[in-house]
């Protein structure tokens, strides 16, 4: 027991569950064993358990615990930490295999014993024969009936026991069972990024790499704004020796002082001059575990290099893996959509087809690049160029990305990843041979957008926007399309006359909102069908400084256009309208 026992209750209720966790600080009553593991626990009438409680922060004198219920709480330390769930699962599998094999050998032993009984009966009958020759024969039969079966069963069982114990030890050793974190942005030389490890789902043990080479956490203070984050996390103490086994070490986060934040992790030294860490989420602050680039080991870690299989003649339109991660949707802002996914940690193999919430999707093209965009990671990846047609076969496309917090639209596609292969399939969908993105890009993820054609003709089924303030000659006001609910297709009118979005920069002083949205590309022809176009906003210094979510456009008979407007990323921004021809009234167009 490492603290006094405290109790917490609510009056006039038996309900101990809480809608939000409660945090409380426990003072240590004894010195911490550096080889032990601290746990926040509560008393459940028979024993101390940790369900619903977790350790948030720790230092030499206090610990902060968080629990989702009320009870009697305390802080305990385990000098021999139990195996994690993964290790228990492995042991269960190994134990099951050992039991099955043991039963097989037991059955063989029983059969051998029965056979031995029959032999014994025969041998017993031979005792009546007094000749020396028959006596020798009887002894041989005894050896065959008893000794041989015992050796035949006993030796394999002994070997099986030895092998399974060795397998179990290897599988539960974190030096043989870890996840490689080859993320160069964690390097102590990385700056200018804002990545938070609290968004990751940490599970098990991890080994730090730097472009395939072993590194370990720094053991001294790292200045703030390094290691790709606000608060760089460094190991507050020396790394262990192999003979030390698994140890607990403090971790510090630098800010106004070197150990402004603190938490604890487990560390183990492994044969081969590397270390593994049991990382935990740094709850309550935006920090990231550092990799000391000054500790690069010359021996590279085992890694798998992705390559294109040119011998596979099967049609990828028929043989693919479904990728249905809803977090890949490209419509969230940076501060709400970043959730810690990283496609460099995925073992990519073969071809993939994308879905979003059950609907067919495709990798977003470069026209989808917008300010503050994200799709589950830190760097959204887009397709360089357009998707191929079915008659094009398998083509290669570049992959580009830009940091999700970037505002300036000119930086779209500033980061180049590894190219992929694409094929358009009959049935109006595409498949992709995805590969591991470039390690130089921090936390990249392939972005997806729903790709489907409407079941109706938008030229015959649209909503008219007859709002004069959208004209580029209108001034004053703070109109914002972000506050509207957009659904379906729209046609722009100006006092009842057909207009369209401008195809060039709109002066901020000549419009009734802060950011006038214009079409970054030409309008389509009727034969083009439905096309996707980018949307830009003028900052005053750059016409396309703000890039918004692209929209779809269609040219209609009667010399007008319809648009599938979507909500802009932020205010105050609004779609604007302009005359591009002699004004045509609706009745002149036969409407």
Structure description:
Helix 1 (85-125) packs antiparallel against helix 2. The longest helix has 41 residues, at 85-125. Strands 21, 22, 23, 24, 25 and 26 form a 6-stranded mixed β-sheet that branches. By secondary structure, this protein is α+β, with helices and mostly antiparallel strands. It has 5 domains: 6-78, Sandwich (Chondroitinase Ac, Chain A, domain 3); 85-172; 179-295, no CATH class; 321-450, no CATH class; 463-589, no CATH class. Mean pLDDT is 82; it is low at 81-85, 300-310 and 583-591. The protein is built from 3 helices and 35 strands. The chain has helices spanning 85-125, 132-172, 334-337, and strands at residues 6-7, 17-27, 37-43, 48-49, 53-58, 62-69, 72-78, 179-182, 206-210, 213-214, 231-236, 246-253, 261-270, 274-278, 287-289, 321-323, 332-333, 352-356, 359-363, 373-374, 379-384, 394-401, 415-416, 420-425, 429-433, 444-446, 448-450, 463-466, 490-494, 497-498, 515-520, 530-537, 546-556, 560-564, 573-575. The protein is extended, with a radius of gyration of 34 Å. The termini are far apart.
Characterize this entry briefly.
This protein is of the alpha+beta class.
Gyration radius over CA: 34 Å
Count of β-strands: 35
Largest sheet: 6 strands, mixed
| Range of strand content | 25-35%
Helix share bin? 10-25%
Low-confidence stretches: 81-85, 300-310, 583-591
Q: State the secondary-structure class.
A: alpha+beta
Mean pLDDT: 82
Number of helices: 3
How many structural units, i.e. domains? 5
Distance between the termini: 83 Å
| Global outline | extended
